[in-house]
Amino acid sequence: MRRPRIGFRALTAFAIAMALVEAACVIPLKALYFPDGWKPPFHVLPAAATWMEQWREIATLVMIAAVALLGHPGLRLSTARALWTFGVWDLCYYAFLHLWTGFPARLTDWDVVFLVPRPWIAPVWLPVAVSGACLLAAFLLRDRESRQFI
Description:
Layout: H1 6-33, H2 47-69, H3 75-101, E1 110-114, E2 120-123, H4 125-141
Helix pairs in contact: 1-3, 2-3, 3-4
C-alpha cells in the first residue's frame, strides 16, 4: 500500500514557516544591534542579547529534532527528516532575508552564521552549501520502500 506524501509536505511547510518566523525576528534585531548596517567587522553583541540569540538558535534545533521524531520513525528516517527540515529552513531563511532586506546581495557576503557555542562568521555560500548537503543526505536516507519522509 502506498503511503501519502503528507509527511514530506508537512515537514517542508513547517521548515518554510519556521524560516519566515526566524527572519522576521532577526531583521529587527540586526537593525537594533547594527544600526550602521549588517557588514563585517561584526561587533560583539551585549551579553544579554548574545544569550537570548543562543537560546533562540538552540530552540530552533530542538523544534527541528522534535518534528523529526514525531511518530517514532526510527533513526534513519528521523535523521532524514531532521536534515530535510534543516536544509529547507536555512535556505528559506536566507531567501526571506534577501527578499525583505536585499541581504545577502551575493553568496560571498559575510554573515554571522551561528552563535552556538560561539559566533561562527562565514560567507553565505557556506551555510547554503551545508543546507544543500543536508537536503541531498535526507534524500538518500529517506525510506527506501516508500521513498517518503514519513
